[in-house]
Protein: Putative pterin-4-alpha-carbinolamine dehydratase
Amino acid sequence: MDVESRLSDLPAWRREGDEIRRTVDAPDFPTAIRIVDEIAVKAEELNHHPDIDIRWRTLHLALTTHDKGGLTDLDFTLAALIDDIAEKHGA
Ligand SMILES: C[C@H](O)[C@H](O)[C@H]1CNC2=NC(N)=NC(=O)C2=N1
Structure:
């Protein structure tokens, strides 16, 4: 997988070893939680689940495919969906 080329379509994300990561700065805490809730729905649909660290209104998200020991298409698919959700909420 050409990770750098996939990342060029996802400027908010950066590679850290076997993961891609981004932060999401929500306008306030309730919005941050709504974003997490919408991500959770997508994660269940895809059976692919991000690591999420919630710090007040900032989310730290990390994606990898544990089952395959590295990054796969699913990580980039979910990353794009997370970007859509964040943008919709002004984050
Ligand atoms: C058995 C089941 O398919 C898994 O353990 C799934 C669930 N969610 C997952 N999420 C992520 N991010 N990586 C995985 O490898 C993964 N595996």
Q: What stands out?
A: The first strand starts at residue 14 and ends at 16. Residues 6 and 76 are 7 Å apart (CA to CA).
